[in-house]
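Exercise 7.
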Amino acid sequence: MKNLNSKVFILLPLLFFSAFSLIKAENLEFPTPYQTLETHLKNLEQDNYHPELAAKSIFPVSDDVEKLKYLAISLKQIYDAKGFVVKWSAIPQDSNYRDSATGKNRYYPIPSLPEIYLEKTNGNWFYSKETAELIPKIHASVFRFNTDKILRILPKIGSNKFLGVFVWQLYGIIALIFISYLVFLIFRFLLGFFVFRILIHFVPKETSKKFIKPLSRPLGILISVIFFLIFLPVIQFDASVNSKLIVVAKVLISIFAMVLCYKLVDLLSAVMMKAAQKTESTLDDQLVPLISKTLKVVVIIIGILFILQNFHFKITALLAGISLGGLAIALAAQDSLKNFFGSLLIFVDKPFQIGDWIISNDVNGTVEEIGFRSTRIRTMENSLISIPNGKLADQPIDNMGLRVFRRYKTTLSVTYDTPPFKINNFIEGLKQLALSHPQVRKDLYIIQLSELADYSINILFQIYIIAPDYQSEMKYRHEILMAVLKLAEELNIRWAFPTQTLFVEEFPGQASLTPQHSENEQNQRKKIPQIVSSLKKSFSSEPKKDKMNAQADVEVQKNKQEDVQPSQSRQIINKKGKELLPEEIFEEAVLLKIKPEVLLALVNLEKKSPAFLPDGKPGIIFQGHRFWKELKKRNIDPVPLSEKYPEIVYPNYNRKFILRGEKEYDRLEKAKLIHKEAAYLSTQWGMFNLDGYSFKECGFNSVNEMVHQFYKTEKEQFIAFLNYLKARQAIDVIRKSDWLSYGKKVHGKNFNSEKFIRKMEEKMNELKE
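Solution. The predicted structure, written as tokens, is:
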């Protein structure tokens, strides 16, 4: 009986407090948003856990108390997961509070979640009916991948604490960090593979490899941090802890997103640089770094703004301040802005490019650099002038570098005692000099007797020189003028100069001062080809260039000129003495004991390219795959060169890069800038396409000697071909007309002998006809 009384004594107070709580819950009122939030949040704290009271703050969308409790708990979990720390002093305590944006009796606790709001209904503030209906959906979006189910397994109250948090939460955060690191490792590997597969479609393979780690690493970190944020709510830290972790995670996302974009700018620069190298303009090469630097600055600024925003700085106020400051700076720096826009005009309009010789007002020199503010020009005195782009854009610019040809005009004055036939012969010799020099236009020159002046007979000497720069022009002028002086010396031509002469022709007992011209006109004319031929050896066969594509520019523009094709008579003069005559083939056939018609047919069949181009250069085919091998022999890595010059350095034979004709010399000139000897060795020369690396078999001591001889006549190319056949031991099989053995010895194992025999028969039949 005593035990029963003691139990009743204990239960009565508990029943009393329970009844008091129910009475209190029934009588709860929420006249302000402050009291509503206080009731909801403080009744769900660990040491004051009364979800039935917290549920009273929810608009009664259902009579089911358990459902309302679930909604209250879920909403608290949303607040904690979002790191929503309540600032009680900022919560309105006005019963008639109105939202400034809508003008309604509403209060939004989390501005980033406008779906959650308190609304005044029948004099009390509750979480709105719309909020109550949306809580499950919002909860599922916060606790993704069904992680909300884990919340039902983990404890809500009790357990031991360490450093202010539950021990199981510490284990949970450590495990989450470890799993996030594993996610980083996995995705870094997978992304590296996919990044490489994507990049090889835009940049060379070697360049792609350089960007695997710089792109896959920040991407992997971004994914791992996002993974961490997704599963962080499961640990159930309170809002104060979560808010700090979320800020750290968002800052990391901003930092590594900025790093990723920074590396993507480098990748974009590599793609643009590859495209710029294929263009003829050097402005593109200068523009790409400027674009790259600008984009990097933009990426850094945007990244810093996002980082500041994550630290809850007011970005709009900051941007407004920057705008006002920018306006003040703009007013104070008008000249700088003018120069900036001047540089944009130069890049868009392209009045000149790097390497061009320009004249603008008092400035005369070569453009070395085009920057955002100024352009640097190297003057003839070798000083460096910086001109603001704004000023330069407003000035007239004479671009000497864009000249298609460089005219050279002078007057050659000879004395009046020169006989007319010598003047004619001298003029004829000057014309042949112009036609013989490889860097003088053959179709556009004026060399004529122009004037009978006071003290001289004047000859107009006007030619157009193909030269990429001023230095080359002076070099070719020197060669031509030296040849003119030597020609005059050989023809006994005297130069006239301004004088006033008292001319006494004879003194008693002394020989006459009047020169005796006893030479015959025809005999002297016959000497001219021999004189010109000897002088021609002093001419440069190839231009010296600082810009790789300068010659290509000249040739392309030359073809656009009107009436540039030489007349028939001039073509004959240009080719005179270079053709391989049938008689010369017959002579060699007799010496080799080969039937003349067989050798003639063989020569006609093996001629695969023109012996000479219209400008007098031998026909060539540059072999980029051979150039690759020659560079490797010289310990020069061809891979980076292949990225920069894919049309001249490639590992395997590729027909698409072969341009033929004059354009092949553009490729050769680029290769010569890398390594001249390797370029010559990698080229097929002349009408028989003889490889440069076979110079010894062709009978030469060096490839340079081979190239020099191939510039002369078709006979030199023919003799080199015969020497090649001798070295290959093919002469005897030609005598026997054993074309199967001939093909193996000369063309290799894959030679189509049947097709060759058929074509030989066709050539023989043509000769018979």
